[in-house]
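Re: that chain you flagged

S.,

Sorry for the slow reply, it's been a week of failed gels. I finally had a moment to sit down with the sequence you sent. For the record, here it is as I used it:
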Amino acid sequence: MTPAQYDFSVVRGSAGPTQGLVFRLKAQSGDTLVNIPYDDVVLSIYKGSPEKPGANILRASLTNTKLIESNPSEAEITWVPDAEDTRLVPLGEKSAYEIEVWNGTSEIVYMYGVVTGLLGGNSDEDEVS
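Prediction finished late last night. Pasting the structure tokens below so you have them in one place:
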């Protein structure tokens, strides 16, 4: 299976279900799309490009509850970041990410690309005067 490529942006310091990424684990079987089986799904974000990823910035999975099954019957998975998660994505830089599907002993990269951090000058600790 050739992984899908998709690039997206996050607003640094934002949180909630509309701030991350939603994807469905599907594969073509004849003329039909079928759900890909999985035990766990892992989103990893790295410094650097997909061709030369560097240090891991963030790891989200179903197991650590940073990913959720938003529609299990459609194999739909959602990354619901908190403000700290989105602030980890460097401002203005493109960081590599990949989504792995784990099923038994199988680990398959399902999707990859770059995520860009936007804005993010805010801090939860800043006081407004």
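What I noticed first: The mean pLDDT is 89.

Talk soon,
D.
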